[in-house]
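does this look right to u?? adenosine-5'-triphosphate version
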Amino acid sequence: VKPERSAADERYVCIDDVTKEFDGFVAVDDVSLNIRKGEIFALLGGSGCGKSTLLRCLAGFEKPTTGRILLDGQVLNELPPYERPINMMFQSYALFPHMTVEQNIAFGLKQDRMTRADIKRRVDEMLTLVQMTKYAVRKPHQLSGGQQQRVALARSLAKSPKLLLLDEPMGALDKKLRSQMQLELVNIIEKLGVTCVMVTHDQEEAMTMATRIALMDSGRIRQVGTPDEIYEQPTSRFAAEFIGSVNIIDGVIKDDEKDFVTIQSAALAHLIHIGHGISGFEGQRVNFALRPEKITVSKEEPADAHNKAQGSIEEIAYFGSHSVFHVRLPSGTKLMAHFANRKRWASESFTWNEKVWLSWGENAGVVLPT
Ligand code: ATP
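got this back:
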């Protein structure tokens, strides 16, 4: 059983109404966030959404125009970067090229006037932690991208910062190495229990690494939640579309059935039945968001399904574990549906232009404001 977090740990990093303007341009717009001790927190968003500016405010490279930033109860606003108990790992790693791996890791410790024996002990610990002991006397250019990243991480963790900042940590790595390093990084960070804020534009990276995500757009926070919450319960069309793929169906709320709220849409021949309460009023225009993997594809009309639509397969994209069917409905609307390829050999296989039925459960989708 995990111990309850104290109120102070809940607000370990406290971003309080922070706005950052550059010559009248608002890059970060009144952002408030509480980040918990020990958490890996991701700032996720597209190019220009303000995520790097917010990270730079935490590091002290930028000063908020208004608002406060606190770490472990201490107000940081007036502290220069080098006086903050914070370390930042840059996308480019910024290793010193003329220094060996161990000299790179020792660099910050030397500035702290530690004894030689203590520095040696700490560097060895860090080398073990990132499994780079064998490479201690190499120079950065003699290392692979993944190895350079491990050294950069060891260097940023050597001084036991209260907060570790990661700026697009996997930006320089290719896709395969990236997913391996994501897990490795999380393991190391969790082993040390260090609190971490990372910036990424890559939703997959945020989903794999973060305990919680703040989704940003135009300088504002659109949603904060665990990866699971943001994926399963997006609160806006923006969030639903930013993470994963999704079908968006326009419609109007109708409230005339006993056990269901229904949505009428010009895209579908049948009403959409929703089995849970929703916020909204009869006649309100809404977006119904439905993930492709929540849809079942079948040849026969599913007799007891409340939610169904018939259409023809216009495109099949093969992804190994599953295929994505693009199904055109008579209204002209196209829906994406996943088909698990483990089922493919069992009974059904599908071809282009084939007529199929799509069906989904009453709790499969989310109703969002337009
Ligand atoms: P990217 O992923 O492309 O780095 P981002 O979400 O990190 O994007 P920021 O770098 O935070 O975005 O920039 C947010 C906005 O603020 C951008 O429109 C950018 O042009 C602007 N901006 C950032 N730094 C400055 C600056 N020093 N002076 C003027 N405008 C700036």
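The chain is about 25% helix and 35% strand. idk if thats expected tbh
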